[in-house]
Amino acid sequence: MAEAYIIEAVRTPAGRRGGVLSHVHPADLGAHVITALLNRVDVDPTDVDDVIFGCVDTVGPQSGDIARTAWLAAGFPEQVPGVTVDRQCGSSQQAVHFAAQAVMSGTADFVVAGGVQNMSQVPIGSAMSVSPHAGCEGWEHRYGDEEVNQFRSADLIAVRWDLSRREMEEFALRSHLRALTAIKEGRFDREIAPVDGVVHDECPRPDTSVEKMAALRPLRPDGRTTAALSSQISDGASAVLVASERAVRERRLTPRARVHHLSARGSDPIYMLTAPIRATRHALDRAGMAISDIDLFEVNEAFASVPLAWAKELRVDLAKVNVNGGALALGHPIGATGTKLFTTLLHELERSGGRFGLQTMCEGGGQANVTIIERLG
Q1: One domain, residues 247 and 264
Q2: How far apart are CA 149 and CA 165, in angstroms?
Q3: Catalytic residue of the set 89, 97, 176, 347
């Protein structure tokens, strides 16, 4: 099968809700990373075959196929189309999968894959004023009237995998400390395309502590999950350029990585957030790999219980997981997080000299994508 190569990857800094990026139109955020991406490579924009962006809650300024709008807002050729993908939190990771599949099939040579989300302007859940399951006879026949709620799911996972609140708070603190260290050491500098002079992620809290977290009330009565153990609502965009073997050869490009494996799997939609466990097992099996073959993992910290349960079930050393912090500290601009994590994973593999990186994230409906990349050079 033909290869899919990663030529470049960039992201904006993540802005806190109501913070530095909250005033920026989502399409302008998307345009910003597309422009930054193509400014870094010797590729004519007219040669791009498609723009695939992830976005959730595609209403208001995020409606109308924001992939296409962002491309046009960047001033690029009208002949290049765009399409917007919604696989919930994994939307832009799925955009990378679709882009890679397009070049691997021989139907495209260059695809821009990315995502954008301004959660300050379009609050999470804006597209679901009514539950998507309400009145669905097939759903009710299968799952009854069980509450489908990510906060409940996070608590269910904590109970099932015996994760204490203290353990999760210590994990959350580690996420902040790792993120603050990464910022201080400039680990994110190369991957970030500054916006209006903003050069660093806004979300990490240097003054947080386990004691401060312990004082917070649970989000649900008798639950274990608090705001500190939940990903931060944030704003941002990210983008990756995927190229075919032919394009790399003919344009004499130097790829930074290749897509070694891509897949997606589903799991119990009531637990909702456990699919990364099944999806990781499936991916490693299909790739003929073991956990020990992977140098770095990016597992989205939607809630502290998610990566902790994943690591516990798969026996993964947390020293290799989210080494520069995760969404508990760095934010989770849901439509953009997939390529945001991808960008960080690529740059950290290069910084650390690792060969293989695996990325996964939980998604609404009980789903998860897994991408394994191999660093080149």
Answers
A1: no
A2: 19
A3: 89
Task: Flag whether 167 is in a domain.
Answer: no
Catalytic residue among 97, 260, 332, 347: 332
Are 239 and 270 in a shared domain? Answer: no
Q: Are residues 239 and 349 in the same domain?
A: no
Question: Per residue of the chain (377 residues), what is the pLDDT tens digit?
Answer: 799 999 999 999 999 999 999 999 999 999 999 999 999 999 999 999 999 999 999 999 999 999 999 999 999 999 999 999 999 999 999 999 999 999 999 999 999 999 999 999 999 999 987 889 999 999 999 999 999 999 999 999 999 999 999 999 999 999 999 999 999 999 999 999 999 999 999 999 999 999 999 999 999 999 999 999 999 999 999 999 999 999 999 999 999 999 999 999 999 999 999 999 999 999 999 999 999 999 999 999 999 999 999 999 999 999 999 999 999 999 999 999 999 999 999 999 999 999 999 999 999 999 999 999 999 97
DSSP secondary structure string for all residues of 57-98: S--GGGTTTHHHHHHHHTT--TTS-EEEE-BTBTHHHHHHHH
Asked if residue 170 is part of any domain, the answer here is no
Q: Are 234 and 337 in contact (CB under 8 A)?
A: no
CATH number for 310: 3.40.47.10
**Annotated catalytic residue, options 203, 260, 347, 362:** 362
Catalytic site includes residue 362: yes
What is the residue range of 271's domain? Answer: 260-371
Lookup: tokens for 308: 């902790």
- In the residue annotation, 55 being an active-site residue is answered as no
